[in-house]
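>> received
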Amino acid sequence: MADITSKITGFFEGLSPGKKLLLNLSAPFILGGAYFSMLFVALPFGMFEKLMGLMVINLIPPAGKESVIPLGIALGIPWWIIASSTAMMDVCAGLFMALNFDLATKIPFLGPWISGFMDSGEAFFKKRPWIERLSEAGLVVFVMVPFQGSGGVGGTLVGRMLGMPKMKVFFSIAIGAFLGSYLIALGFEYVIMLFKTDLMAAVAVVLLVIAIAAAVYFYRRKSSRKLRSIPIKKKK
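>> returned
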């Protein structure tokens, strides 16, 4: 991965400032647009419509991939499509943040939150020391597991606080996003298979998942309150 990131970094450094800015701004939208355009052509319109609705829901807290992926599968969307789509949302967000971090800090509401999040770095790693110890692998796990604030945006901030190069941050986010989404999708598919073969085992798994989901929900609510309590720095 080091060779790939160094080549990409070298390519960006060779561009003129104007071309670099244009590419930085357009690359995430080109990537996302190409992916969803391909799905628009390949999928029945009704399924594509459901998928895009779920992608919008995915952007609204406290919804996330852990709820959107099972819902998509239940609505008849193939597991690999809904999983890949939620992962691509994180990938595009991570790419935008990696290439346009300074611009993102100037966006209303998002910018002050980013500044507050970055200022809380010491407290963040004190609560999650394993991320700092594991570095790139820790960032992959952080993005993979549906923590509050994880995903493309939060993952980029954590990577910057770790001092990682932006392309390493991006690739770590991409790996974590796809692994996390695929594990959730395959887990839900396994539960469906259990219902068809062993009802009691399926019920036990569902109860376990509900308990875990409840724990994650309350954890995310608690974390969300803490993140909202981070003081926002006002520009003088």
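>> The first helix runs from residue 2 to 13.
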